[in-house]
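Reminder to self: tokens first, then the designed residues, so the page reads top to bottom the way the pipeline ran.
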């Protein structure tokens, strides 16, 4: 039993808040299954659009609100698709979730590993224990997780400027073109310029992500997936061997690796990095759409990186890339006087909580200024990058790249609202899908 249980142990006779059958089915139908159907590792745009049009976000919000009301904000035990799930709905419990060491509330939850092990079996996020710590150290160093500005910032910004130049040649910013630019930026900053044109590598990565969406359910595909992973990994290794020192993979390889972890795989961390840099395209697309409907904010953010960064954080609060954070307990834990066995999955519905009017003011509106407040980045009521030991080590780099791309696209230009753009003063939709954005001279 760990230290964190003892004080509440005496109260372990409190009754657990356990969802009934109807609530369990409702949670699966309105929250969990749509999340899987929309695709996590590889978004499925058509399904995302369909769920958006049907108002799925509203269904999930209503379900979580009713659970919170019914059980007085207590953690709710729900039968999930692969076992017991404890859903946290109260800011105090969520703050504790982030404060717990990852050794107790581990990142490698069953469903997450089932999904991600197809595309990054040696990724830090799929790891545990001392090996995880060693891989996290490699990530922290490569990504300069503890620094506001990455040491290779100058090289990365030059890459962004080059890759964004073709995007401004037309008077409409197409999402597919933006996405391709981020894919090239990712390959160049992770592996070096030699990988810039390697679209075949990206096709392999995307196929693995699409397969990951099935969470290992398509067993017959496993041998083919393993072969594909081996091919992609060999290609990454080839680039890694000659990568310039400023690249992420070269920085990862520069971390001294002791003999105790022959399976450390520094270059293998690149699978997650490339996935994450690709995701920046969606964040940029949503942020630019918000700036199109908020012209004053657009003018304030143009040329002001701190303001632009706040716009990216705000669009991540409204439409998080990771809407649910899931961990698995490695020891008995006590929540509100109730003891839960080791192996309990704990879920924080970040997407719901950080848009919840009960805890976040003007929760349904685009208010980037909230991120300029001191320590807003450490406020556990908003967690687009998570917090604590499992916080995203690429948060600074992700925001640096997103800010730089927006700056390049708005240099001497402005985005204007496309048809059907959300109204700036009404509650924003639960889903915001990328759309062609009119670009004109400023
Ligand atoms: C907009 C951009 C990004 C967002 C919103 C984001 C969000 C997140 C979140 C929420 C987590 C925690 C997931 C969990 O608890 O299961 C995470 C983990 C992680 N992210 Fe990011 N991320 C972003 C960009 C990046 C970038 C650019 C990189 C690297 C190039 C990166 C590398 C990682 C890694 C390696 C982990 C796993 C950390 C661990 O297991 O300790 N992320 N990210």
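Designed residues (442 positions):
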């Amino acid at each position: 039993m760990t230290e964190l249980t003892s004080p509440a142990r005496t109260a372990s006779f409190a009754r657990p808040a356990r969802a009934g059958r109807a609530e369990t089915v409702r949670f699966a139908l309105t929250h969990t299954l749509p999340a899987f159907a929309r695709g996590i590792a590889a978004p499925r745009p058509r399904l995302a659009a369909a769920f958006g049009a049907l108002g799925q976000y509203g269904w999930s919000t209503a379900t979580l609100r009713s659970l919170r009301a019914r059980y007085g904000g207590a953690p709710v035990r729900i039968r999930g698709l692969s076992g017991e799930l404890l859903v946290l709905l109260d800011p105090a419990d969520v703050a504790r979730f982030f404060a717990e060491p990852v050794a107790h509330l581990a990142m490698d939850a069953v469903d997450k590993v089932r999904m991600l092990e197809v595309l990054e079996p040696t990724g830090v996020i799929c790891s545990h224990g001392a090996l995880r710590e060693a891989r996290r150290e490699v990530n922290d160093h490569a990504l300069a997780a503890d620094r506001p500005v990455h040491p290779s910032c100058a090289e990365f910004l030059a890459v962004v400027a080059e890759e964004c130049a073709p995007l401004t040649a037309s008077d409409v910013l197409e999402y597919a073109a933006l996405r391709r630019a981020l894919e090239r930026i990712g390959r160049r900053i992770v592996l070096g310029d030699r990988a810039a044109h390697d679209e075949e590598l990206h096709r392999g990565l995307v196929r693995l992500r699409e397969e990951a969406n099935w969470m290992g359910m398509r067993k017959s595909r496993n041998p083919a997936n393993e072969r594909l992973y081996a091919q992609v990994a060999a290609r990454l290794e080839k680039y890694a061997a000659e990568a310039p020192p400023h690249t992420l993979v070269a920085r990862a390889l520069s971390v001294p690796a002791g003999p105790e972890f022959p399976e450390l795989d520094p270059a293998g961390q690149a699978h997650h990095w490339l996935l994450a840099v690709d995701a920046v395209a969606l964040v940029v697309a949503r942020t630019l759409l918000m700036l199109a409907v908020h012209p004053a904010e657009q003018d304030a953010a143009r040329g002001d990186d701190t303001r632009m960064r706040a716009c990216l954080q705000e669009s991540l609060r409204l439409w998080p890339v990771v809407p649910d954070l899931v961990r698995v307990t490695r020891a008995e834990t006590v929540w509100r006087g109730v003891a839960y066995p080791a192996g309990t999955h704990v879920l924080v519905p970040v997407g719901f909580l950080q848009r919840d009017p009960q805890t976040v003011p003007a929760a349904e509106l685009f208010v980037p200024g909230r991120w300029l407040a001191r320590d807003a980045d450490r406020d556990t009521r908003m967690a687009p990058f998570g917090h604590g030991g499992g916080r995203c080590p690429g948060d600074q780099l992700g925001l640096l790249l997103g800010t730089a791309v927006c700056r390049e696209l708005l240099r001497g230009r402005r985005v204007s609202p496309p048809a059907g753009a959300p109204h700036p003063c009404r509650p924003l939709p639960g889903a915001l899908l990328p759309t062609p954005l009119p670009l004109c001279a400023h």
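The first strand starts at residue 17 and ends at 18.
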